[in-house]
Amino acid sequence: MYTSSNNYYSYFGISNDLINQASSIEKSLSKIYSELDKIKEINQLKVLKAMQDAKLSDSHFNPSTGYGYNDAGREKIEEIYANVFNTEDALVRPTLVNGTHALSTCLQSLLMPGDTMLSISGKPYDTLDEVIGITNHPLSLKSYNIKYEQIDLLPSGDFDKNSIVNHLKVNSDIKMIYIQRSKGYSRRKSLTINTLEEICNLIKSINNKVIIMLDNCYGEFIETREPTDVGVDIMAGSLIKNPGGGLAITGGYIVGKKSYVELASQRLTCPSIGKECGLTFNTNRLTLQGLFLAPSIVNSALKGAIFCSKLFQDSSYDVYPVYDEARSDIIQAIGLNSELEVIEFCKAIQAAAPVDSYVTPEPWDMPGYDSKVIMAAGAFIQGSSIELSADAPIKEPFTVYFQGGITYEHSKLGALMAYNNIKKIKE
User: Which of 240, 257, 282 is the last residue of a domain?
Assistant: First the structure.
């Protein structure tokens, strides 16, 4: 199978010319990569210190049974997460089935009839439409007389501070300010920690009782600080994204003020139980080891996203963000010219996968979305977004979302194969 050629990428159909182009790109990115390595180092030490301060022991990897009362491993995981994210408490459970579930648990536990939820980063991710009531559902927040309002970001991608201030001053029933850090299925810029710090300070200066909640999916360990370091009261995310480090097999997390996390735990189980019960189904070691590796894994994915951005930008494609722009998530959006280009891009990512590389992804009617969606992900953990993947709604403007790669080399290969597929269309 293997030859003496130095171009091992040729096994994947990558030409010497494209490899030379890739090498040139990497040289131009060396300074950016070096800065990312400094962030990785700080976050790695942060996670290590959190585990040491919690006195983590191999005994905490042991499973419990039945109700799971006094599960030392589960409690240790939550202590470590609270340490890492600098919060009073944490809820980290395999029974939070995904990021949407974690977010929904927060919303349903903290908002009561008559309250208003104000999203200040535009409409949240599509899978929350039925949760909120943007799309009708008998169990939505709207069905319980919980109101939803939103303020879109400015065309620049910044918060509309004037509208936010006016809303807070006029509407006394606003219980929660909701923020989505990542771009989701949009071309907007993701929200940096400095930007979040400014808006949190502004909000609290007007109403220090309002709950600031944040969707942190795709954003963990991108910067040296997290949103809960700068004023966010409660936030949630998925363990099969950044913090799981490619090892967590399922789960989600909620971190924040103790009273809010406790209410979320009571929504997840029931008011009389809260955090006291719940098995971890022998996932403790993988959850903790994944967290330990996460700063390094996120660093690899981030470098891959930047490489992909530069590769396509150099060929005159619109990319969001551009390669040297400040980032706050692992997602790279690429504006393509047609449905065919979107499909060929995703086919290449699937073909680059270690799992199911022989499968061909096709657009399909995925629940929770208003158009067909194509998803490419040959991952060790089903649906893992920290592993190399790409997805896109099949609608204009045609935009594909590239993310992940638990090694930089794999992310780089995926970008090159996607570029190669699209180049063949033009030829």
Answer: 282
Q: Which residues contact 147 (CB under 8 A, 6 or more apart)?
A: 115, 116, 117, 173
Is the overall model pTM greater than 0.70, yes or no? yes
Q: How crowded is the C-beta side of 69, counted as CA atoms within 13 Å?
A: 1
In 3D, which of 21, 59, 8 has the Cα closest to residue 423?
21
Residue 427: the pLDDT is 66
2 occurs within a structural domain = no
d(CA 405, CA 171): 44
Structure tokens at 403: 């993310």
Q: Which runs of consecutive H residues, i.e. helices, occur in 178-250?
A: 193-206
* Helix (DSSP H) and strand (DSSP E) numbers for the chain: 11, 12
Last residue of a domain, one of 236, 259, 282: 282
Place of tokens 């980063």: 121
CATH number at residue 21: 3.90.1150.60
Residue pair 399/373 in contact (Cβ under 8 Å)? The answer is no
Query: If you write DSSP's letter for every residue of 337-380 in order, what string do you get?
Result: SSHHHHHHHHHHHHHT-SSSTT-----B--TT-SS-EEEE---S
What is the end-to-end Cα distance of the chain in Å, rounded? 29
Q: How many CA atoms lie within 13 A of 5 on its CB side?
A: 12
What's the gap between Cα 1 and its chain centre?
38
Domain that holds residue 32: 8-45+292-425
Specify whether the CB–CB gap between 369 and 221 falls below 8 A.
no
User: Is the pLDDT score of 201 beyond 50?
Assistant: yes
Q: Does the CA dihedral 419-392-252-285 come out positive or negative?
A: negative
The pair of structure tokens assigned to 155 is 């065309």
- Locate 326 and state its tokens: 């400040």
**Residue 360 in contact with residue 219, Cβ under 8 Å?**
no
Q: What is the mean pLDDT of the chain?
A: 95
Q: How far is CA 233 from CA 46, 72, 345, in A?
A: 20, 26, 39
- Cβ-based neighbour number of residue 276 at 10 Å: 13
* Span 145-175, pLDDT tens digits: 999 999 999 999 999 999 999 999 999 899 9
Neighbours of 279 (CB within 10 A): 17
Kindly state whether residues 114 and 263 are assigned to the same domain: yes
Quote the CA–CA distance of 85 and 256 in Å, as a whole number: 8
Q: What gap in Å lies between CA 299 and CA 301, rounded to an integer?
A: 6
